[in-house]
Amino acid sequence: xxxxxxxxxxxxxxxxxxxxxGSNPVQVIAVTSGKGGVGxxxxxxxxxxxxxxxxxxxxxxxxxxGLANVDVLLGLQAHANLSHVLDGSHSxxxxxxxxxxxxxxxxxxxxVKRMANLTSYEQAGLIRAFSELRHPLxxxxxxxxxxxxxxxxxxxxxxxxxVIVVCDEPTSITDAYALIKVLNRDFGANRCHVLANMAxxxxxxxxxxRKLARVCERFLDVTLHFMGTIPYDPALRxxxxxxxxxxxxxxGSPSAKAFKTLAHTVANWPAPQGTRGHLEFFVERLxxxxxxxRGYLA
Length: 298
Ligand SMILES: Nc1ncnc2c1ncn2[C@@H]1O[C@H](COP(=O)(O)OP(=O)(O)OP(=O)(O)O)[C@@H](O)[C@H]1O
Ligand SMILES: [Mg+2]
Prior knowledge:
By secondary structure, the protein is of the alpha/beta class.
C-alpha cells in the first residue's frame, strides 16, 4: 500500500505550517514506560494524529511486537505486519497502512511468540529497514512494550527522543525509575522526557514528574524534562470503544486538547544533532545537513 500524505485539518492550517521534505533528519520519538497499562499506545496514537492534523508527515510504529494493538485500537485491518517483513515475504513499505488524519502505521503481530523474542540481529534489521523508506517523513512515533526487555531497549535507544509515561501509582514511578536506570547505566542515555497520564490536573502531573526527577537526578547521571500532562478523560475511553483517536473523534475533550498542546511541544523540540555512534532510526538522514529550525508551529 502506498504511503499517503498527512491530512491538514483546517483548524491547524492557521498555524502556518511548513512541510519537511525527503532527506531531512526525521524526528524519532519512543514512547515507553516501566509499568504496563499506563497509556503508551493511546498516547502514541493521539500524539501521532495530533501532529498529522498540524500538517506533519507522521509514521507510527507499533513496536509492541508480540502483542500489537495500534491496529486494534484504531479498528484497522492490517493484511500483513512486521513478522512478514522478518520472514522476507513483504517489504516494510508493503505492510504500511493508512490511519486517521493520514498517519502511516507500521503494524506488529499479535500472539506470535517469536516476535517477542527477536535476536539483536533481527532487531537491527528492522531498525535499518526504515532507512530504505524514501518518502517525506517528519516524525516517527514508536509505541513500545512496557519494561526493560531487549527489544524495548533496542527500539528506545534507536530513537533520539525518549518519552517515559507515568501515572499516579507507586509502581508506575518505581518501574519508571528502574527503566531509566537501565537506559542510563547500561545504554548511556542521559536525558528523557516525562509525560504524566491519567492525572487529575496539571499540578498532579508536575508533582509526579518532580517525584521521579528527584530520585533520578540524585542517583543517576540523567536529566529529566517535564513534557506535560494528559488528564484522566472518560472521552478517551469512549473513543477507544469506538476504535477511533480521541483527537479526531472528540476534539473538544480535555485529553484531545492536551494532545494538541503536546503536538506543539514536540514540534518545537530542537532537531537531532547528528548521530550518537550506535544503531539509530534513519541514521543516514542524520548525517546530512542539519536543519536549523524545525519549529514549524509558531
Ligand atoms: N488519559 C486517559 N484517560 C482515561 N483512560 C485512559 C487514559 N489513557 C489511557 N487510558 C486507558 O488505560 C488503558 C491502558 O491504555 P494503553 O493500552 O494505551 O496502555 P499501554 O501503556 O499501551 O499498555 P501496555 O503496556 O499493555 O501496552 C486503556 O483502557 C485506555 O483506555
Ligand atoms: Mg500498549
